[in-house]
Amino acid sequence: MDTLAIVILNYNGQPFLAKFLPAVLANADGHPVYVADSASVDSSVSFLRATFPTVRIIELPRNEGYAGGYNLALEHIRTHYGGARYYVLPNSDIAVTPGWLSPVLAMMETNPKIAACQPKIRSYDQPALFEHAGAAGGFVDWLGYVFCRGRVFATFEEDRGQYDDNRQVFWATGACLFMRAEVFHETGGFDGSFFAHMEEIDWCWRIQRLGYEVWACGQSTVYHVGGGTLHKSNPHKTYLNYRNSLFMLYKNWPADFWLWPKIMFRLILDGLSAILFLKVGQWRDVWAIIRAHFAFYGRLPQLHRERKRLKAQQTTEVPLYPDSIVWKYFAEGKKTFGEIM
């Protein structure tokens, strides 16, 4: 069994592989590098075979998004390659840096309760700034809205060393997610119904309910292009984020009594955000939010069964940020993590 498997999920991302995979290989510290290809229709697989013969290629039968794709790929590594103690899942548009692996692995080796961890994520295009997807570790407020150290909504902080500490957080980003393999498989991996976006936050919430911890490592830094497969302006991304946020909240919110009042309040806030999209003429995003709500209603029976199963297994209460990040940011004008916390 390997100590660590570096696993990159790819879908029609041959240009990103050409640009960023050499640095991954150069800084792999002897650990195997896998590329799991989600039935790409570009030249990704032939390019990998011709250019990077040391990379272990996993050809998946279809594109099942981040969640389903990694579930298939990591199970394949466990059954066909003997598995690994840890996985790290860098996006194909992540630029790694020398020494990015060892600080995170040292943390996880020292504390067996850490089941998920992330490095600092900075912007590839604006290297001094934290990047949207995860920044320096994430949190969830009482309505299920997510925010990060270093990035709150559209405010991106400059990295001045203010988050160089190692600390426990609520969620670690899927852009470069380190995981304890045993915990990933024991918990059934990601929820495949999410397809993409927020599945890692859902998983981090679930593992904390079982007593595990999620951390951010300030001694490791990578750079993220972002939107390599699905750009942030794409209405389908809007649909997935709004839908999956509701999925996650319904499954994991602990108190039954406050669940539906909280869901209804959240639906109202989603409606207000749709009005903001409408004001700037983004009709497709408005329709994406409407579709997301109906997809949530349609999946309620399955979500309810999953909620009951998770409650029966839960051993630990998981505290959320007790206030509204929406109110803090838009009403009180608190734009950074330090101001909010």
From TrEMBL:
Residues 6-186 form the Glycosyltransferase 2-like domain. InterPro entries: Glyco_trans_2-like (IPR001173), Nucleotide-diphossugar_trans (IPR029044). Pfam families: Glycos_transf_2. Keywords: Glycosyltransferase, Transferase. It comes from the Bacteria. One of its GO terms (molecular function) is glycosyltransferase activity. Belongs to the glycosyltransferase 2 family. This is dTDP-Rha--alpha-D-GlcNAc-pyrophosphate polyprenol alpha-3-L-rhamnosyltransferase. It comes from Spirosoma pollinicola. The lineage of its organism: Bacteria, Pseudomonadati, Bacteroidota, Cytophagia, Cytophagales.
